[in-house]
Design a protein that fits this description.
Keywords: Isomerase, Membrane, Transmembrane, Transmembrane helix. The protein has 10 helices and 6 strands; from the N terminus they run ααααααββαβααβββα. The protein is elongated.
């Protein structure tokens, strides 16, 4: 009997089946263990402290007990969704994820850059070499009266503006918006650059009008994206380079950004040398 059993287990096929079964059990055990670990989410003290710090940074105060529990539950939900998404392979070939990871890496590289405190000579040299960065745009300060065509026509709105203009001529009243219609924005504007006027009134004739016409009198009618206006231009500020002493902190910030950009470019070029770039799209067919 013992000889038959020994002969049975000495058969190559039996040995193969036994080894295969043991290997299956071994793989199944570790796969099950791996699955259990993948389903375990540990909320450590360090993670909770990080959640509290993020909340304080955004809100300005510490979360209450109920708010903290809600934040922790939110983290757990996010982690579950993240793991399930990875199981489905949603992190592969996704342009948004690629871009976000690239941005995070760039931010990390930027944070690692150490910038020594610039000297007065550093800042003055940067200021003199980059004066275009510190150019002040031309500005205008004005008030206006608005005439809407919503309840009539553009021609009638313009006619009403002309009538009011005749009433205001020879008067230096800088504010008379009550003689017109209700305007959805404001009536008085201070130190507005061209881009500010365009944002508020549209890219219409009123933009050039405000920067060219005479001061201290009611003028118009002139058209905007809303309708017709009479305008009283109080003053203008000329374009020019801001004096260094008035914008020293702004110069410093720009200097630091410039140094970081230069060092990041050096770091990237060094990193890029480690990769072989195959531009197959340039191959001739």
């Amino acid at each position: 009997m013992a000889i038959k059993i020994k002969r049975f287990f000495s058969e190559p096929l039996i040995q193969f089946i036994i080894l295969g079964g043991l290997l299956f059990l071994f793989v199944s055990y570790f796969q099950q263990k791996k699955d259990i670990e993948a389903r375990e989410i540990t909320v450590s003290k360090e993670k909770v402290n990080q959640i509290i710090l993020n909340y304080k940074t955004q809100v300005g105060s510490l979360p209450s007990k109920q708010e903290l529990e809600a934040l922790i539950d939110g983290y757990i939900k996010e982690e579950i969704s993240y793991r399930e998404a990875k199981k489905l392979g949603l992190d592969h070939d996704d342009e948004i994820i690629r871009r976000r990871l690239s941005q995070k890496f760039d931010f990390l590289q930027t944070d690692l850059v150490e910038i020594k405190e610039p000297t007065e000579e550093d800042l003055l040299l940067f200021y003199n070499n980059h004066k275009k960065l510190f150019r002040k745009d031309a500005t205008v300060t004005f008030s206006h009266i608005y005439f809407s065509a919503d309840n009539s026509t553009a021609a009638l709105a313009k006619e009403r503006a002309i009538i009011v203009l005749k009433q205001l001529q020879n008067h230096e009243i800088a504010n008379a918006h009550e003689k017109g219609d209700l305007f959805p924005l404001q009536y008085d504007y201070v130190d507005q650059a061209v881009v500010d006027v365009q944002q508020n009134f549209g890219n219409k004739p009123i933009v050039d009008f405000l920067f060219k016409e005479p001061l201290k009198r009611w003028l118009g009618p002139v058209e905007s994206g809303y309708g017709w206006h009479l305008v009283f231009i109080s003053s203008r500020g000329n374009t020019g380079i801001m004096p260094y002493k008035l914008i020293k902190e702004e110069v410093k910030l720009n200097y630091i950004d410039s140094v970081k950009a230069t060092q990041n470019k050096i770091a990237y070029d060094k990193l890029a040398k480690k990769y072989l770039i195959n531009r197959s799209y340039l191959d001739k067919k």
